[in-house]
Amino acid sequence: MVKNIAIVILNWNQPDLTTKTISSFLKINSKNFSYHLYLVDNNSSDNSFQVFQELYKNNSKITLLKTKSNLGYAGGNNYGIKKALAKNYDFILIANNDIIVAPDFIEKLLISAAKNPKSILFPKIYFAPGFEYHRDRYQKSEIGKVIWALGGKIDWNNVYASNVAIDEVDRGQYDHKKFKIDFISGCCLMVPSGAFKEIGFFDDRYFLYLEDVDFSQRAIRAGYKLKLVPGAVIWHLNSASSSPDSHLQNYFISRNRLLFGYKYASLKTKLALFRESIKFLLSKDHWRRLAVRDYYLGRFGKGSWQ
Questions:
Q1: Fewest CB atoms within 10 A around its CB: which of 68, 189, 192, 222?
Q2: What is the C-alpha to C-alpha distance for residues 20 and 100, in angstroms, rounded to an integer?
Q3: Phi/psi of residue 230, each to 5°?
Q4: Using CA of residue 109, residue 111, residue 113, residue 116, what is the dihedral sign?
Q5: Is pLDDT at 241 greater than 50 in this prediction?
Q6: 17, exposed or middle or buried, with CB in 10 Å at 0-12, 13-18, 19+?
């Protein structure tokens, strides 16, 4: 039976980047499945939506959606997912607007899905050429094969999430190796549509950052496996949507780390988080101080971020 897939891509003020990603998706091999792309504009303040209307007005493969306000990564994707679920697709594929995909990557995901029905699947994610953290470290032949993520792991003692195998050159060393995956990056994941009834959607309180880690932990607790499909490949234009170690990251990660940690971590770790949060409240770091304050006051979503 031919499978139907909804692809949800979220844009906020990045029409050039988003259209490159969509161009990549429109080149996928889809002989053995059907797909439709839901492009959600997260109430951009630029001319993104007008650009998309002009470019895709005659493309039957794409539905344009626009939110009434900036709902963040979590809320914006939820908006698209809910619209897609109303159409009874077999799978929802959530993808960042800063990736380039191999033409056969969805085919590879579907082959694995048939063998692993209660799984959330994800591809190998490489750094796009030129976007590596350590560009001078690699030989020319290794560019495009540098791993950004093969899933993620959580340091439960400190409540820090990190990508598995980041910065390593892929030589197939993980293709048949068993290793624990604690979460799937929201960069790209394929979810059986029925799973949302068991797991729920992304938690809107996070707005941005760690909502994918929370979703993954709920999936695991609902009995789903997080499964890497080594033959499926995409490339990530890393930090094209937000700069590393920015005020934005400092605010949302600091606040959301408390939200996640108090929900899932051990009592010992929760006590350590509390002590650390008091230090942040008394520090001179403006955005971390606001993040902690907002957490304890229950100011989630966009919070104090302007």
A1: 68
A2: 8
A3: -60, -30
A4: negative
A5: no
A6: middle
pLDDT of 243 higher than 70: no
Res 46 pLDDT > 70: yes
The answer to whether residue 257 scores a pLDDT higher than 80 is yes
Residue 118 has pLDDT above 80, yes or no: yes
**Which CATH architecture does the domain made up of 3-236 adopt?**
Alpha-Beta Complex (3.90)
C-alpha torsion angle, residues 146, 73, 38, 9 (rounded to 10): -20
Reported as a pLDDT band with limits 50, 70 and 90, residue 2 is confident
pLDDT of residue 238: 81
Packing angle of the helix pair 286-297, 247-264 (nearest 10 deg): 40
Tokens 């209307």 correspond to 53
Question: What pairs with residue 92 in β-bridges?
Answer: 6, 191
Q: Specify the DSSP class assigned to residue 136.
A: G
Evaluate if pTM is beyond 0.70.
Answer: yes
* In the block, residue with structure tokens 């942040």: 280
**Cα 198 off chain centre by:** 19
Tokens of residue 35, six digits: 């797909």
232, 108 contact by CB (below 8 A): yes
Average pLDDT, stretch 172-197?
Answer: 95
Asked if 164 and 177 count as a contact pair (C-beta separation under 8 A), the reply is no
Identify each DSSP E strand in the chain by its residue range.
3-11, 33-41, 62-66, 91-95, 99-101, 119-127, 147-149, 152-155, 160-163, 188-192, 225-236
Q: Which of 107, 185, 93, 96 has the alpha carbon at shortest distance from 147?
A: 185
Which of 99, 105, 120 is CA-nearest to residue 233? 105
User: Where do the structural domains in the chain lie, given as residue ranges?
Assistant: 3-236, 247-297
Percent of the chain with pLDDT over 70: 98
Comparing C-alpha atoms, which of 247, 259, 226, 260 is closest to residue 290?
247
